[in-house]
Sequence to fold (747 residues):
Amino acid sequence: MPLSLQSEPHSDPHAALPGGGRPEREPNALEVEDLRVYFDTEEGEIRAVDGVSFHMRRGRILALVGESGCGKSVTSYSILRLIQSPGRIQGGSIRFYPKPADGGAETAPIDIASLTEKDERLFDLRGGKISMIFQEPMTALSPVHTVGNQIIEAIRLHQDLDKQQARDKAVEMLGKVGIPGPEKRIDQYPFEMSGGMRQRVVIAMALVCNPEILIADEPTTALDVTIQAQIMGLIKRLQSEMNTSTLLITHDLGVVGQLADDVAVMYLGRIVEQGNVRELMKNPRHPYTLMLLKSLPGMSAGKARLSSIKGSVPSLRELPAGCPFHPRCPFAVKGRCDVGDRPKLEKVSETRGVACIRWNEITDGDIAAIDKEPTR
Amino acid sequence: MSPADSTLPNGPLLKEPHPDTRSADPAAGEGTLSPLLSVRGLCKYFPVKSKGLFQKQVGEVRAADGITFDLMPGETLGLVGESGCGKTTTGRTILRALEPTSGEVWFRLGEEGADPRLPVKDGYVDLAKLSEDQLIPLRTRMQMIFQDPFSSLNPRMTVRDIVGEPMLIHKICKGSELEDRISDMLTKVGLKPEHRTRYPHAFSGGQRQRIGIARALMMNPSLVVCDEAVSALDVSVQAQVINLLQDLQAEMGLTYIFIAHNLDVVRHICDRIAVMYAGRIVELAKTEDIFKHPQHPYTRLLLSAVPNPDPDTPMNMDFTGEVADPGNLPQGCAFAPRCPLCTEICKHDTPSLLNVSKDRYSACHHSDQLF
Fold:
């Protein structure tokens, strides 16, 4: 049984309502358990995601962080079943809990991982209850259709509206994401817009069907810093207005710190540390999270050398034995960290999980000592 | 490292060739700091052509417009700004990878004795005016490190060929001496001599960037333009490469122009920073001054938009406006449409880069309000 950290596996949300007040903890919108996504290649099986578990709560932003190749995008694509051959979901479950209608009863969860490719429910979910913002707005939008037609298509696939109603709704949504003159802009093609405007269109398209879960895959990576700030503000505002659960995929720890409520750090296909944003950013327990934060230029004081992580991310084909981070870890101990299986994500507090066998042995003194070690 | 105070003009941008200003320095001569590079009014305009048979020029994009700064030996100057602000164009035009439209780029030749065929003035040559032939021997002194470690290395060449090629082109050495130098350089950048026979695909992104650095430093240049040299790298590897660049600078006495959009990286590595907007430098000052007391409204906007990993240090997500389109600039100050301080004058007059206090230059009609 994989460890669940965000909350206990889905329970009746009304049970948590003594006296009918606000629930102390929002119910889960999505539970991913032991997800494994493998890719068959000529050199053998690549385990891009190998046993990932996390829970998303309603109305909160969970950030999935890691360097390139850690499996964060593959995880997010699996939720919409967008993994294409040679990739496949080898095992695990992705349980989606639809929001009950007002006053309605709780509906049964849908295990997205076990649906067949042709299942009606999958088409319903994609772009409807679960939608996605892609990284590169230029490739996510069709260059030969106006942005209006693309948004209207998304609306009419999922909602019973006629053309004019759908168009009105599209205009309204474009206005909501801060596009000036939406009634004119709606008839433009993506190439007529700037990068920031295109990303707004992609966001409008993702949100137009009131999704319960929004997956944002590097939504600001391709943007300039001032435009990034605007888009971040937009995501945050819409998120609280619409009470969507958001899965934010990013490698930028600054974006995480400013947007996320909860964070899961991935390394080589697994989550190595999980927790709420404050405890994780201010008091990282896994050496990888710690070193990642330390290697940010803004975080170390003055002009001192940056502490960097030695070496580079190993290939998924040649995973080191034991903890796969041990060859790069300044705290690794021979004979303990480099043998056996990967350390499991251990629940260290109510909200916190760490996959390191030495997490409670590492002292502040050890951490201070690594700054003095030169690495090149 | 402090930039010389007297070398940048007070008042409107200098029209005179730079050496005149420099000779005003009474202590000019041995032992004093004179700039390695003096850029004056450098412009690069790209023509915009009409569609159709004759391709008539219908306009121009002012990618770099009146760039002026001094660069002291051993210094790192950051060029920052959002995409399309002209920072890369500026870097490339200085190295004559692009032909300048106008302006001067005075490069100090040093004591080694310059080629007598070069038009030297007080130990400086104007790179912008030299012919291609005259430039060739100078190419060894200035090098570039590129952003993308994947496309900037030829996949069909081994590391030895990539790193050794400049030496062969400039006929500096060959044979076993070349092999020795390649090995030394690879060791210096943190690779192993036995990597020489491998091809770029066998390396990770960070290692490839090290190969690019080795290639650039092989000629022992004095000026290196790093164009987004660490932007494509993952955080953990980025820190390694930043450390490497700093070590090599100390070891080899390099002078960097560091082009980047990541303000945290620039703050870490640069002595001074030039903030660019729509082809112009809008603020130039020491790094800490820029970050602690920005004196141009654009610099303020830029800094307020940087997301901090600490959730308790909030950022500004609440502003409007788009980056200016360099092909379609408004009259007056290009930043005026987004500027909170904008008044009538900003819509008509383009502000010049003025010396507002010691070592500080700002191009804003209202910079006095920003103290």
Observations:
- Residues 130-208 of chain A form one domain.
- Chain A has twelve helices and twelve strands.
